[in-house]
Amino acid sequence: MTAVEKIIAEINNEFQTLESLHGKEIFGRKVGLAFAKRVAEQAKEMEKEQIVTAHYQGYRNDIGTTEVSEQYYNETFKQQEQ
């Protein structure tokens, strides 16, 4: 699990905790968490692009392609999410 995925998991856990609660304070927290989750999801996509790019740059001296680097990301990080 990457650092960004950890943040997203913590946000999701907090959402689950708040689901059983009600009130104005809870609504404000949900709005804040929704914003944080959107930002974290954007950061996750940026992180993925950085990992794929770094892999490609290190691998391209052999037979590297962006498809191979995308496959590396999916095999290394996507399986951990499931």
Topology:
Blueprint: H1 3-19, H2 24-59, H3 66-81
Helix pairs in contact: 1-2, 2-3
Offer a concise description of the structure.
The chain is an all-alpha fold and 82 residues long. The chain has helices at residues 3-19, 24-59, 66-81.
Task: State the helical fraction.
Answer: over 70%
Please tally the β strands and state the result: 0
Structural class by sheet pairing and helices: mainly alpha
Q: How many independent structural domains?
A: 1
Main sheet, how many strands, which sense, barrel? Answer: none
Main features:
single chain; 0% strand; elongated; mainly alpha; 82 residues
Descriptive notes:
The protein is mainly alpha-helical and 82 residues long. The chain has one domain (3-81). 84% of the residues lie in helices and 0% in strands. It contains three helices and no strands. The protein has helices spanning 3-19, 24-59, 66-81. Helix 1 packs antiparallel against helix 2 (24-59). The longest helix is centred in the middle third of the chain and has 36 residues, at 24-59. The chain starts with a helix and ends with a helix. The relative contact order is 0.13. The mean pLDDT is 81.
